Task: inverse folding
């Protein structure tokens, strides 16, 4: 009794087809534009000031400066943040200032953090759709606009 060969035309065709499908899926997912995670309307937004001039070199101090609970102001912040859905990069574009932001916004539903948004002198930092961290170059006017919505002095985020 002869055993069937493991590599016959049908098995080779199946293997090649599967390999092509995996390659197409990988190329499609890698070529998709990076998108920031859209935010639902949170119950609160914590505004965190980031101080990089802490006495220990390289140390960072986070200071909660305000918590937004006003539904109208929360809606304005979410509307602003959600307009930046595309145009993000997974690495910080060269030449940008502090990548972590000078002000961080933490979005909460009850006690659970549901999102993050960083504001730097010339960039935003956000959670991506795939749980990655994304960066986006922006004009200073855009930074100043979100600061005005947050009712923060423009000096909180130093100019580059």
Result:
């Amino acid at each position: 009794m002869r055993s069937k060969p493991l590599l016959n035309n049908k098995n080779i065709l199946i293997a090649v087809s599967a390999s092509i499908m995996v390659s197409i899926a990988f190329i499609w997912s890698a070529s998709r534009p990076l998108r920031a995670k859209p935010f639902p309307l949170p119950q609160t937004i914590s505004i965190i000031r980031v101080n990089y001039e802490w006495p220990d070199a390289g140390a960072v101090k986070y200071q909660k400066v305000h918590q937004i609970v006003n539904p109208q102001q929360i809606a304005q912040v979410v509307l602003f943040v959600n307009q930046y859905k595309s145009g993000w990069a997974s690495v910080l574009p060269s030449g940008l200032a502090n990548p972590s932001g000078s002000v961080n916004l933490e979005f909460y539903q009850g006690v659970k953090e549901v999102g993050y948004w960083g504001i730097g002198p010339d960039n935003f930092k956000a959670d991506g759709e795939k749980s990655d961290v994304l960066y986006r170059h922006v004009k200073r006017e855009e930074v100043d606009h979100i600061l005005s919505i947050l009712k923060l002095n423009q000096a909180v985020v130093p100019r580059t």
